[in-house]
Every structure is written in C-alpha cells, then in structure tokens.
Amino acid sequence: MKQKTEIYEAGLSAESTDKCSEAVRKYTSALNLSGREASRYALTVEEILLDTQESGDCDRLRLTTGRRFFRSCITLELFGKQQNVFRKNSSGSVLGDSVLKNLGLSPEYSYAEGVNTYLFRIKKKSVNPVISLIIAIASAIVLGIIGKFLLPVGIINGILDNFLTPLHDAFLNMLGCIAGPMIFLSVAWGIYGIGDAATLKKIGKKLLTSYISTVYIVTVLFSLICLPVFKPEFSQNSVSGSELSSILNMILGIIPKNIFSPFTDGNTLQIIFLAVVIGIAMLFLGKKTDAVAKAVEQINYIVQYLIEFVSRLVPYFIFIVILNLIWSDSVSSIASAGKFFITGVICIPVMALFVLLITSVRMKTNPLLLAKKGIPTLVIALTTASSAAAFGTNMNACRKQYGISDTISSFGIPLGIVALKPATAINYISAALFFATFYHVEISVSWLVMMVFSIGILAVATPPIPGGAMTAYTVLFTQLGIPPEAIAITLACDALFDFLDTGIDQFLLPIIMLPQAGKLGMLDRDILKTKSK
After folding, report:
1. What is the predicted pLDDT for the residue at 350?
2. pLDDT (tens digit, 9 = 90+) per residue, 119-139?
3. Measured between alpha carbons, how far is 299 from 101 in angstroms, rounded to an integer?
4. Which residues, listed in sequence order, are joined to residue 58 by a DSSP beta bridge?
5. How far apart are CA 352 and CA 334, in angstroms?
6. Which pairs from 358-364 meet CB under 8 Å and 24+ separation?
7. Please, which residues have CB within 8 angstroms of residue 531's CB and are 6 or more apart in sequence?
8. Which is more confident, 298 or 349?
9. Cα(148)–Cα(367) distance, integer angstroms
10. For residue 361, with 0-12 CB atoms within 10 Å meaning exposed, 13-18 middle and 19 or more buried, which class applies?
11. In angstroms, rounded to a whole number, what is the distance separating the alpha carbons of residues 472 and 180?
C-alpha cells in the first residue's frame, strides 16, 4: 500500500487533540502494525498534546504522517515556547521517564525557530530472528556437508584461512569496539533517565534496590546450583591467602587511574564504575548538566543503532562459525552446547516459581492468583520477545489486577524493563560456567566472585534492544578469560533464550514491585486479592 503524506493543522484544543490521536491510530493501522502498537503511538501523541495544552506555552499544531527518507514517520510540530515534555520532572508521568526512549516509545525532540518538533520513526517489521537463525544454521550444515564431500582439502583450507576466519575476526572486533561504550552509556543514561533526584530518593531508591538485589540473589543462588552441573576445574589453592588478596584487589581495582584508561584497557568493571558515578552526578546536578546529558543521549542513540545493525549480522556470523566448525572437524563443540541450553531452559522457570512463592508469602496472597494475573503479559512477551510490546499490558495489569498505584507503576515498569533481568542473569551464569569448563579455564574463588559481580552488573546494564546481550557476552567472556570462539555458540542459543528471558522478566516485574508498593502505601490490597477477570 502506497503511503500518502497527510498534514493536519489546527489550533491546540481538546478537539484537535482527539483528531490527531485518531489520525495517528489510522495511519499506524494502515502500516499493518498491531492494534497495541498503533494505540501506543496514538496515546503518546495524545499525552504530548495534553501536557503542552496544560502548560499554555503553545497555541497551534501541525501533524504530518508519511514517508521521510524512505522511512514511515509521524511528525508533530507545536508552535510556541520551547517545552520538551520528556524532560519534565514529573514522577507521575510516563512521558517524564526518559528511560522509555531506550524502548523506542518516545520520539526524537528538537526546537528551532519557535517550533517544538517530535519525530516518530516507525520501525519496519523485521523477519523473526529465530527464523533467520534456523535458516543460517540449516544452510551452514548443508553447505558444510556438501563441501566436505565435494571440495578438496586444499580448497577448504584456503576458504577458511582467506575468507571465513578474517570475517569471523572482523565481527568479533566490531563487538569489542562497541561493547565498552554500550555498557557505559546504557548504565549512565539509565540512571539519568530516572528523571530527578527527588524521584530517586522517594521511589527510585527502593525500586532500584529491589530490582538489583533480586538480580544478585538469583545470580548467587543459581551459580551455586549450576556449579555441580557443569563441574568446572578448580584450582588447588582456591581458598588461600593469595586468593583472598586477589578478591580485595579486584574490588579496589574498580576505581580507575584516570577517566580514559578503562576504555583503552577494556576494563569493564572500571567502565561501569565510571558510568554509575557520572550518571548519579548528572541526575543530582539536573539542568546544570543539560548539555552533557544531551551529548550522552545522542551518543547512546548512535551506539544503539550500531548494535542493532551488528545484530542483523548475527545470522551470517553464526553461518560462518558453523561452517568453520564443520570444515575444521570441530562439530563436537556445537553438540556439547546442548547442556548449556537445557540448563538455562530448566533454571529460568524454576527461578520464576521461586520468586513467585517468596512474594506470595510476603504479600499473604495465593501464588496461583498472582500467576494468573500476569499470564497476559507473559504470553505477549514470550511470543514477541519484546518488552516494549508487553509494556501496555503490564501497565494495565499493575493498575487493574495487582492494585499498584499509577505513581509507582508508571515509574517502576519502565525502570524495571531496563534494570530487572534475573532470567538474563541465569543465561550469563550458564554460559560462563559451561564455556569455562569446555575450554578448561581454571576456576578459583576470585574468578567466581568476579563472575557473580560482573553478571549482576551486566544483567542490569544490558539494554532491552535487539543485540543488547550480544555485547554483554563479549564483555563477560573477556573479563573471565573465556576464548572469543564461545560467542558464536552463545549467540545461537541466546536468540532462542531471548523469548524465554523476556517473557519471564516481564512476568516477574509487577510481582517484584508488590512489596515495595505496599511499603510506600501505593497498593490496593483489595484489588490484589480479587480474582482476575
């Protein structure tokens, strides 16, 4: 269907707001977006107009829908004084939480010559990553078997040495190049995206503590569970004084010598330390750091765009790796990854059940009732592998099913999508222990402490975008001394894990919010204990 550019201009009023919302809904529906996605764009435009109308700083609007540089776009222009509703310090407004920009739910904003411009770039529907992955794996296996039978050994070795290996190394170099900046920007912008220091003190501190402590408890507990499963090689002096000293040095070594060395040396822990310090400083300084915040935000968009681009290359990378393994007679490494995959598939639902039971005891509520209330969110996230797709359903469940106040849910859900990833942490644990065993990496107490500490931070720091976990695995393996060859097999499994991870993490999000909502007096217990409709 060919798209026509349509323009609607009117004075800013309740009537024009309704017409704009309906026009956006109609346009996005014509793009074959789901009803939920179309509604999300329409509601965001409506909220922008309502916030602007309330301030009285603008008196006229122009809505343009159509293609812009071969991309479907929605442009909303508001004529008057500068007012970016996304930077308003309102903890009760979803639009006030800039962390939503990491989910693609907020437009780009600019102001020039008396016009506030909000630009939505509507993403094209992409091929299901699982389908792309299956095609890549099947093609590599077929071509690999045919090549083994038909091609001389000399030609195969020539292709490996002159073509496949250089491409493999180039892809790993790309990952290493963007891994450090991605982690830094994800953490710093995530902290700054909380909105303001008052919100951090009132709600954010409790929720962040709850989210991060959950991730670390899961990481420690399931590390202990997975150790006897994978049976890694332990060093003989794993509890010696030198080991304890190395743990202390690791903790103290998180403070860098200067602001540049963490990036030049590739020291992940120091990069994360800098990101936390700078993010908190920006948050407390507020408007004094607007210029820096804008730069961080824009660089963050650039890095995320690069990650999305690199993530599109993953099927080709996996094709190259599997073909390489078949032609170099190393197929056993693929088959052995089944243990890593099965462990994750079993442990993630067990973890969800554990969290559900603990919360039901704390809230004195039937666990089956809590689970039933979250099933719609679980189904959407599980089938789409998209936290953004489950956002609206999760918000609705918080209000109407769990009885969580809008004040905390409109802040806690976006923050939790970024910070609460216990299922992702289990994947990192399984991958780290499996490949440490597979490549005979010697394990010690300090290595385990490093693993737990790094996984907890990386799980929180992994951005909820396609390819986010890809760079996190690169960072983790480098930190733990695991060869980079492990990344390809991990990515193949992670493409399937992504659906389970997203589903479980989004399902648990409002459940983990319940105790904090109760402590803050923002929970309607009557709604919580009412059977879901």
Report:
1. 93
2. 888 776 555 566 777 788 788
3. 13
4. 80
5. 28
6. 359/511, 359/512, 359/514, 359/515, 362/514, 362/515, 363/514, 363/515, 363/518, 363/528
7. 369, 372
8. 349
9. 55
10. exposed
11. 9
pLDDT tens per residue across span 49-100:
888 888 888 889 999 988 876 678 889 999 998 887 766 544 444 444 444 5
Residue type, 134: I
**Which strand (E) or helix (H) includes residue 67?**
strand 58-68
Residue whose entry in the numeric block shows the structure tokens 């250089």:
166
Specify the pLDDT at position 283: 74
Q: Looking at beta carbons, which pairs linking 326-329 to residues 24 or more positions away fall under 8 Å? A: 326/140, 326/141, 326/144, 326/145, 326/147, 326/148, 327/144, 327/147, 327/148, 327/156, 327/159, 327/160, 328/160
The edge-to-edge listing of strands for the beta sheet with 6-11 is 6-11, 58-68, 71-80, 115-121, 108-112
How many CB atoms lie under 10 A from the CB of residue 367?
Answer: 16
Distance CA 243, CA 449 (A): 11
Amino acid occupying residue 532: S
Q: What is the pLDDT of residues 140-152, one digit of tens each?
A: 888 888 888 888 8
In this prediction, residues 104-128 reach a mean pLDDT of: 76
DSSP codes of every residue in 352-371: HHHHHHHHHHHHT--HHHHH
pTM strictly above 0.70: no
User: How, if at all, do strands 58-68 and 6-11 pair?
Assistant: antiparallel
For residue 252, give the amino acid letter.
L
- Which are the contacts of 162, defined by CB distance < 8 A and separation ≥ 6? none
Least Cα distance to 501 among 452, 457, 464, 451 occurs for 464
Which helix or strand (DSSP H or E) is residue 379 part of? helix 375-384
The rounded distance, in Å, linking the Cα atoms of 529 and 224 is 35
Asked if the model's pLDDT at residue 358 lies above 90, the reply is: yes
CB contact set of 428 (below 8 Å; sequence gap of 6+): 455, 458, 459, 472, 473, 476
CA distance 279 to 259: 14
* CA separation for the pair 220, 480 (Å, rounded): 16
- pLDDT for the residue 3: 54
Q: Which two tokens stand for residue 158?
A: 């020539």
**Cα separation, 396 vs 400, whole angstroms:** 6
Query: What angle, rounded to 10 degrees, do the helices at 468-480 and 445-461 form?
Result: 160
Rounded CA-CA distance 510/393 in Å is 11
pLDDT of residue 531: 72
Residue 478 to residue 461: CA distance in whole angstroms: 16
The amino acid occupying position 349 is: P
DSSP string covering 305-318? HHHHHHHHTHHHHH
